[in-house]
Every structure is written in structure tokens, then in C-alpha cells.
Amino acid sequence: MEIKDSYELPLSKERVWAALNDEQFLKRSIPWCEKLERRSETELAAEVKLKIGPMSTRFTGNITLSDIDPPNGYTITGNGKGGIAGAASGSAKVKLIEDKDTLSTTLSYEVSAQVKGKIAQLGSRLIQSTAKKLSKNFFGSFVKQLEDMDKS
Amino acid sequence: MNEVTKIDGIGSSVRRTEDKKFLTGKGRYTDDINRPGQVQAYFLRSDVAHAEIKSIDTKAAQSAPGVVGVFTGSDIAADKVGGPICGWVVPCRDGSSTKEPPHPLLAQGKVRFVGDAVAVVVAETMEQAKSAAELIDVDYNELTPVVDFVKADEGAQIHEEVPNNCYFDWELGDESATNKAIESAAKVVKLSVRNNRLVPNAMEPRSALAEYDSLDESYTLHTTSQNPHLTRLVLAAFMFAIPESKLRVIAPDVGGGFGSKIYVYIEEAVCVWASKKIGRPVKWTADRTQAFLTDCHGRDHVNDVQLALDENNKIIGLRVDTVCNLGAYLSAFSVVVPTILHGTLLSGQYDIPAIYTNVKGMATNTVNVDAYRGAGRPEATYLLERTMETAAKEVGMDPAEFRRINFIPKDAFPYQTQVALQYDIGDYEPHLDKAMEMIDYSNFEKRRAEAAKRGMYRGIGMSSYIEACGLAPSAVVGALGGRVGQWESASVRVNPTGTISVFTGSHSHGQGHATTFAQIVADKLGIPMENVEVIHGDTDKTPFGMGSYGSRSLASGGSAISKAVDKIINKSKKIAAHLLEASEDDIDFKDGKFVVGGTDKEKAFGEIALAAYVPHNYPLETLEPGLEENAFYDPTNFVFPSGTHIAEVEIDPATGVVEVVDWAACDDFGNLVNPMIVEGQVHGGIAQGIGQALLEDAHYDENGQLLTASYMDYCMPRADDLPSFKVGYTNTPCTHNDLGVKGCGEAGAIASPPALINAVIDALSPLGVTDMSMPATPQKVWKAIQESQSVAAE
Question: Which fold has domain A2-151?
Fold first, then answer.
């Protein structure tokens, strides 16, 4: 499953890049995130609680950053185990492109996600819409926080 | 035999005696049975399709509340318990045999499909077992899954023992003669078809309750089985190496099987093993998700067909190249289904002078595929009848006439096909004619035109099928790679008052044996049916028998009962002769009475029974007391039911929905014992076939995740998907069993899918549609309509 979208931000690329690498900032952008801790330069530990169709599941897992190309983008990959509900994994390629004329930055992402176990068996028809919603929520609130900070 | 129809004898539509308990909810299924001290088993299953197991940490689960044991593959290996076995293998083209990889009870080192059992948790309650299973940490090293079976040979190797993921590469028939026929043909009709993968969906999920008696070191297993004796044999001899006498297997009421409950699965074996390990009775019952994931699926073939015709449209050759998906492990009959039960049926009802078929059975990271109602024969019938219809249209003949000119003529029986089978008897034109009459075939074009006025596409399609069932002559089975005999047993016990207890090796899980078998005995002995009780499903009560599948119960099991009753009658005549002071040769048996020919001297059957058990006036010096006889019946041939089904459909171009508006089924099942039960079997079979043709499709994604694992995504036929069926019969009695019976259990599921798809294509033929794959879902049909219209617009 693939999801693509992009946002235009009235901010410099460096500013957006810094936020993308601030785990506290990221955590605030993920309302369903219960824990996000940095383990190393490229690794984070996460706990998220998600509702997919009829199933409400807590996933624990690792997040790794790769293809790091400051300040142009990275690939963020997550693997989560949801116990009896199964497991989910996904990655998002995040790219930042700055428009020097308007002093704005376009954040674009491409998400691919996979699910296993009960989530796949019972919720496969719900995954696409759920993943879309979650991606939109995350990047939407990430952008909104940045904009708010910029205003304040 | 059908001439004299008695109220409760052969040929009478007696209401099913077993229905009282089923219709009132009083059936007693495995999960209804509980034992003191019983614990629950829950299987932790792999959620990845293909992976090495790096480690399994069960520590936290071991100490979770209520847990009495957590076991993994290494515990099974330590106890040297074997796994399920393959009951039938075939030779390969290169001279090697079928590759048989081991199938451990719990995964050892590797998991091979989503649902593969990795560990079992045994706890006081199911909730506790499930909760503890969540604490087990399995670390997988994921491997690339093999899902597309057609390209499985290019994928990662699933078993060390199975190079190129090919279990077998089998052939049958004369390749060079067939290729010659194709080369010299006036016309070659080519077609590729796919037989969609199905989930069996028995109403009752699989279940097992095992208990161990430490005093006499014996086990009792209640389980959902179609063949309790085979289950006992496999568990005792191949898995646990214990004497059969130390294991009692009871298959109580079983709520549907359709093939899926033939095999010994790992779960019941693990329950048996754990019951001793823990020292308490262990129960496991699948939930519906587990049934979807782990019951053996059915079908899943692709077939490339070439049909060679001469200038008179007579068939001169048939070549079929098949690839089939057998899943992650070989199941009991998974090898025989796409080979012996498929390749040998390719002659259908037709006189075909040259046939060749090649079948490759592939391993994939999906659950095992094995017999499902029809087992190989629906696949053969589908490809053949789709090709017949396509050929008829390509040569511009009416499909009925094209079939008719190619039928094996009535006077050609016994007919030796080019694919091993010899049909003993049949007559195909009468059921074609009758089915056409039943559905008013000659006026179809008027109905099509009338439907067109309403904006609907109406189509008609037929299928003339043959089935080889009533498994089967043991010597033939052995020669073809079978590892079991295929006879059936019966023990008929006359009780002192003249009532009868019939112990059968067949197993009823919906077929109505308690009624049908009682009718046979009542008819032969001239006694009321209610005096006959049929006992099945318990290895401690019934003689060793092969169980029920492959439409064999009446032809094989019923014949065994008939033979045992004949022995009862023979012995009774001796007793009667003594009591009536006559010569045995002068005793006639009719309507339940032994009469001295030409006199009014007679003894009723009940009097004979009493004399046998109270032998005060009895020829003890020459005859044993008592009246009980066994029979083991080994058929001399398969039985060959045949028939023609015609489907009529209407398609709404706005939605693509196919409505089945009419259905005529005319079958030759030989003599009918209970026409009502037979009709019920026909209805059920057609319903399942309509499910396959229009609705059902088991689908794995590219990662090997089963996406159709619930009724949200796997569509079963419902009452409003089905028309009112017109059911009729012709009769050419089977020549080689006493009852003259064939088999009817699978016929509907075999005949119906091609008839229905032929009708769908016929409906869309004005648009230029010539092919449609199963299931013909509204989306697929709608798309075909749209595409044809866009082509027309160009």
C-alpha cells in the first residue's frame, strides 16, 4: 500500500529539517504516540496506540532513520508489534524542497505500509484508509505546530 | 429394486431420523463435551508467511496466570513425535517420487505459512491461554514468501527436500499420440482457466478433546473427523508409536466436513500429546479465523487446455497442462486430488481417442490445499466443460449438439478411457435431453429477447459432467500410489428381539446415514426402519473402516452393510430350516418371513433372532448361536455418476450482478435409496458450486497474508443467491455393486461451476465477451461489460 502527499510550509528548509529531527517535536505531532525515545543518532523506540476498525491495539517497536541527507530529507522506517493483533511495519520517504523565491519549503512524503496477523486478516480493507488518516494526521499536525511556532 | 416401494424401504423419501436432534439444537459436537479437570489449548501462530525462527522466549508465558504448560517444536522433537503423513504419492516424469518434506506438529526452525503453529499454551481457561500467548516472544528472520504458485519454481526454496518448490511433476496418457492429434487437427481450441482457491467453511469449526488414562496408559480423543479409524491409525502408528488399542477416537456429531475433516491436523495430535504431558484432559476448538487460516483449502489450479477437432467437429485429442498449489506442507490426500482424481477424469462423457495431461504440484507459503467437495473432479469438469462450450461456439454449433456428437455412445460400455478409468455403464443423451426439457432450452432465445427489452443480458450454459467416486478398488488404489485400502466395513448385529444395530465404518457428518443405511437394512429384512439403529464414529464400537469422503458412503459403506445383511439372511435360513423341519434350499425369505416354499409354514424374522440367542431348539452341532455378521466390501471399480446441469442467468449491466434465474439438474446416480436426501445433496452441491463460480475466492497478498480471512471479505452463498432448483434423474444402475448405486454427494459441486460460467459468458456474448474467470463477481462482470463497450466505441 502506498500513500503520497505534500505540504507547503512558509519556512526555510533548515527549520523544517530541525523539527524533523527533534523527537520531542515529533512526539507532539503524533497524538496517539505514548512514548518516543531516542536511542542513538538513527534509532528511536516508540509506543503507539492505534485503532484499526474494531481493533484497538498498542504497538511497541523501533524507528530507524536512514538515507539521511540533511537538510533535504530521510527515510523513516518503523516496525511495530501489536501482540495478538499482529504486527505492522512501514516506512516514509520524506523530502524537503525549498523555493528560494517564496522562502517556502515543500514537504512531500511517500508512505508504504504492511500489516501482519489479525490486522491483515480482519482489517485489510480498513488499512488503506487508516494509514491515510494517520499519515495525514501526523504530517498535518507536524506542519501546524511548525506554523504556530512561527507565528508565536 | 426401485419397483417395490415400501413406506420405509429403498426408494422411499423417508424424513431424516437424525434431524430431530439437529433441528432442536441437541446435536452433541466435540466442543459440547467436557471432562473434569479439563484445560484449554491455544496455538500461537506465525503471523509471517516464511521465516526462520531465531528464538522463542516462552518464560513470561510460563508464569502467566492459569498457565499449566507452554510447549514449542523442540518439546515435540525431544519426545520424537512424528507429524502428519501424506496418504497417497505419485511418480514423477523424471522417475523420482513425490517429495515429502516433514511436517512437524509445532514449527521447528522455520515457519512456512501465516497460521503455522509455533507454540501451544495450555491453561485453565481459553482467555488465560490467549493472554499468555501474547507474552511469547518469537524472533523471526523473515524470508521472501512464495505466494504465486505458477511462479513458485523461481521463488525462495521452502523445504530443503523440495527443489524448485515442486512436490511432483506427474503425467498421464499418451503424449506423442495426443500431440500428433493436435498437429493434424482441423481445428485446435485453446483455453486457459483458473480454478479459484476456496475455503471449506464447515459450519462446525475443528475441535479436539484428548484425555490420557495413566492407569491403563490409554488415550481417548474426541475430534471433528470424517474418518475416526484413519485418524487413530495415523496418530497411533505414525505419530506416537503406540498400539492402536491404546487410543480410542470418537468423532461424535460433526457439523460438516466437505473434505476438510478427512486429515489428521497438528492440533488434535498436540492435544493428545499434551494430555499425557500435563496429565489433564486438553481441549482445543478453532475460532473462525483459525478455520480460515488452517483448514486445508481447496482447488487452486491453472490449466492450459488444447482440444483437437477433426473436420466433422469430433474430438480427436485433448492435452491439459496443469499447475496446482499444494501449499506449505503435503496434506493426507493433497497429492491424489490434482492427479489421480483429476487427470483420470479428463475424458468426461466424451469419446476421446488421445489424451495427455501433465500436472505440477507446487509448494507455496500458504496453508495446505487438499480435497474439497469434488476434489479434483470439479477442476477436471470445469476445464473440460468450459472448453467444450468454447469449442462449440468457435465451430458454430449448438453446445448441446456439439456435446451430443462427442458423447460415448450408449452401446460402447464398458468404455475404456485413455486416462486409466473404465466406465462400467452410462447413457448420456437421456440426461442431456431431460435437462434441456426441464429448462425449456428450445425457447431460450425468446427469453433472451424478452430480457433484452428490460435491459438485461440473459444467458444459458450447460455442463455434462462425469465423476469417479465410491473410492475405490484397493488394488487399483495401491497401483496408483495410494497407501491405504479403500474397502468399507459393516457389522450387523441382530438383537434377541429382532431389532438391528448396524455398525458402519462410514462416518456421517451431514449425509443422513442413520436414515439411508437403516432403509437398506429395513428393505432387505422386511422390518420397520425404526427397528434399525446405525452406529458410527467410534473406534471402540465400529469395525475398522475408511470413513466418508469421495461420495463413497453408499456405494462402498452401503454395499458392505448389504453384504452383511445377506450373511444374516443366509444364517437365518439355516435356523428357519431347522425350526420348520425343512431343507434350507426350500426356505424362501420374503417380506420379513421365512417360508417353506409351497406351504404356509413360516417363521418371522423376530422368531429366528430369538431362537439364535435362546438356542434351546437349535442346530448347535452345525451352527453357532447368535446372529451377527461382518462384511468388508472392496469395490471392483469406481462408480461413475454423470449428468447434465443447465444454468440460466440474467445480468444487470448497471451493476454487473449475476442473478441465477433458473437451474435444471438431471443426474444419473443409479438407484436412489432416499430421493429426498439425494435431492438435498444435489441442492447443497449446486449451492457450493454457485459459491465458487460467483462469490468465493481465497486471496493471499504478495506477503502471504490471507486477506479473505473472515466473512467480511470471503463471500459465501446465501439463500437469496440461489434459485429454486429443478432436479431430475435418469438411471443406469451401477453394474458392480448389489444396490446398483453410484454416489451423489459431490455431483452438484462438480457440475455447477462450468454451467454457470458458461451461462454468464453466453449472456455477455452479444458484447463479444468470450471468457470470464471465477468468481464472476459484480465488479468483474461490470468491468467486462464496460471494456466491451469501450472497445465497441473505438
Answer: Alpha-D-Glucose-1,6-Bisphosphate; Chain A, domain 4 (3.30.530)
